[in-house]
Amino acid sequence: MQENVDISKLSGFKTKASTRYYFQVDSVDDVRQLYDIVDFSYKNNLNLLFVGGGTNLLFAFYEYDGIIVKNNLSGFDYNPQTKKLVVYSNEDISNVAEILEYKYGNNIWHRFIGLPGTVGGAVVGNAGCFGLQISNNFLNATLYDTFTGEEFCLDYEQMKFGYRDSLLKGQSRYFLVKAEFDLSQKIEKYHSDVDNIYFRKYKQPKGNSCGSFFKNPSKDVSSGLLLEKAGFKGYQYKDAFFSQQHANFLMTSKDYTDFSSLIYLKDAAQKTIYHKFNIWLEPEVSIISNYK
Ligand SMILES: Cc1cc2nc3c(=O)[nH]c(=O)nc-3n(C[C@H](O)[C@H](O)[C@H](O)COP(=O)(O)OP(=O)(O)OC[C@H]3O[C@@H](n4cnc5c(N)ncnc54)[C@H](O)[C@@H]3O)c2cc1C
Q1: Which residues are identified as catalytic?
Q2: Into how many domains does the chain fold?
Q3: Could you tell me if 86 and 171 lie in one domain?
Q4: Kind and range of the H or E element at 196?
Q5: Residue 198 within any structural domain of the chain
Q6: Domain of residue 54, CATH code
Q7: In a domain, 195, yes or no
Q8: Domain boundary at 71, 103, 130, which?
Q9: 201, 236, 245, 268: which could form a disulfide with 241 (CB 3.0–4.6 Å)?
Q10: Do 25 and 104 share a domain, yes or no?
Q11: Is ligand 1 within 6 A of the CB of residue 283?
Q12: pLDDT of 15-52, one tens digit each?
């Protein structure tokens, strides 16, 4: 384990942040070390956080009073006959989707081309775009229980997937090692005509962000539209702002920005939307603090 490590680049917002302790999981052997690491965190009253691509994390601290566990587990196995995919948790989801399509001719994950982050992060948050959700073709996940040191599997039902949610969201006991998917049939929530590759390249705001900041309050009401109506599109506070291109994209204009500007804008947006529309916006992005 390393001490006093700069982790500013580990979150999509790239706010200035460091951690007291840092551990990187490079192999399955490293996963087994998590038992001792979690024990150490309990004995010393430290927080603990698993980080994949960091594209859904806002670090609301200057120094993390705990242990950042950076995942680095990669590799996947696709069987063209059965169309089953087993993938380690830190594989870049967009990269896997591209290889499946261009090397193996399987386009079931086409919608994930261009989606930032890892397969692990996508499973934890049930990521989805253009009608496809990671849960749609999910079979099971292999988890490491850091309390008992045992590995076990959870199936679709046990994962309790919801809108940008699963059993694994917001916890740091179970480390997701790998997941299995059945990519033999297209299961989409709705049909979208949008060309996702073009959209990601040309229509989506570029820069430091974690994508959409707030969840949509319902199927018919989008956070982006509410923020736009309330005047937040392009609204800036210090080095943080809501994108001019997409009002629900909270962003920073430079690396090492102070996280408090993002929190200021988040609070302002929540309060204003509540007063104007009687709707409380829930963040989709996980806000990580030192609160114990
Ligand atoms: C430009 C942009 C566009 C985006 N568009 C979309 C979109 O269209 N749809 C969408 O759903 N999301 C979107 N996102 C958000 C992001 O891509 C997803 O949330 C992504 O799945 C997060 O993956 P990650 O690896 O970065 O996870 P992280 O941010 O690293 O982590 C997310 C959560 O998973 C947990 N976690 C990560 N790895 C593990 C593990 N191995 N074991 C246990 N827990 C773990 C973390 O503790 C955290 O709670 C976008 C983000 C950006 C920056």
Answers
A1: 164, 212, 284
A2: 3
A3: yes
A4: helix 196-198
A5: no
A6: 3.30.43.10
A7: no
A8: 71
A9: 236
A10: no
A11: no
A12: 999 999 999 999 999 999 999 999 999 999 999 999 99
C-alpha of residue 72 to centroid of ligand 1, in Å: 14
From residue 206, give the alpha-carbon distance in Å to each of 48, 216, 238: 30, 21, 19
Q: Provide the domain limits for residue 239.
A: 205-288
- Is any ligand 1 atom within 6 A of the Cβ of residue 127? yes
From 7, 56, 248, give the residue whose CB has the most ligand 1 atoms within 8 Å, as the site to mutate: 56
pLDDT one-digit tens code per residue, 166-211: 999 999 999 999 999 999 998 888 888 899 999 999 999 999 999 9
Ligand 1 and 224: CB distance under 6 A:
no
pLDDT digits (tens, 9 = 90+) for 96-124: 999 999 999 999 999 999 999 999 999 99
In the chain, DSSP finds a helix count (H) and a strand count (E) of 7, 17
Q: Which residue has the tokens 């849960």?
A: 135
Nearest protein CA to atom 4 of ligand 1, as residue:
211
Mutate which of 7, 10, 50, 151 for ligand 1? The one with the most ligand atoms within 8 Å of its CB, which is: 50
